Structure to design on (228 residues):
């Protein structure tokens, strides 16, 4: 418990410092796009409204463009776990607008109840600007895993997703993704296998981040703050 509190405090200090740096783009993280009132959900109506507001004065891009251009108006959209609601409620909007977006798939969730199927992902890949990334083989904390176990799970996730979906994967998002959830060793192990490693530090991107990508969790509460 004391160790966890230490990392929570450390992350809060990091967030405070990072918010003083100039924004060079923002990365947003979604989970469910439905009417559940929880910290991992945004309604379909609010999702559509938010996308519309972004397109008025910002540019929705892929992570390569955001890192390269360092433009505060650039935005990246990502989905973790990838619930079926993403396919039903978000995919049609993203397809219509021609917007790039990331699907971070966890192997143990793919083709399971409430989550997208392989066929749904293939459709999204063929009919929109979807980009697939790994969300590890199992949706677990990484901090307490031995390095060899971490390597095995990362490689298995990447290899199986690439084979199943006929894609090349160069991005990874840690489950949970906080300073407590991921050790420095975990992050370095992931960096050796992926071009970009996505976390859940709720700050804009800035040059010092490099290829460790912070993300802002989007739900109905965050939506209201962002729309002010």
């Amino acid at each position: 418990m004391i160790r966890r509190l230490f990392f929570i405090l450390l992350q809060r200090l990091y967030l405070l410092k990072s918010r003083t740096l100039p924004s060079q783009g923002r990365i947003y993280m979604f989970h469910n796009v439905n009417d559940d009132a929880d910290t991992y959900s945004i309604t379909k109506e609010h999702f559509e409204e938010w996308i519309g507001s972004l397109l008025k004065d910002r540019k929705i891009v892929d992570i390569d463009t955001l890192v390269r251009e360092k433009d505060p108006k650039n935005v990246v959209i990502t989905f973790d776990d990838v619930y079926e609601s993403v396919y039903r409620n978000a995919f049609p909007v993203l397809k219509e607008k021609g917007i790039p977006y990331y699907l971070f798939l966890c192997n143990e969730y793919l083709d399971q109840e409430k989550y997208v199927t392989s066929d749904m992902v293939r459709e999204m890949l063929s009919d929109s600007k979807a980009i697939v990334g790994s969300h590890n083989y199992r949706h677990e904390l990484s901090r307490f895993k031995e390095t060899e176990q971490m390597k095995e799970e990362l490689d298995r996730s990447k290899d199986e997703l690439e084979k199943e979906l006929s894609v090349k994967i160069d991005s990874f998002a840690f489950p949970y993704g906080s300073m407590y959830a991921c050790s420095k060793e975990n992050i370095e192990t992931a960096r050796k296998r992926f071009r970009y490693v996505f976390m859940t530090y709720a700050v804009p991107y800035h040059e010092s981040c490099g290829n460790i990508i912070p993300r802002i969790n989007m739900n109905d509460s965050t939506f209201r703050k962002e729309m002010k």
Residues 22 and 206 are 7 Å apart (CA to CA).
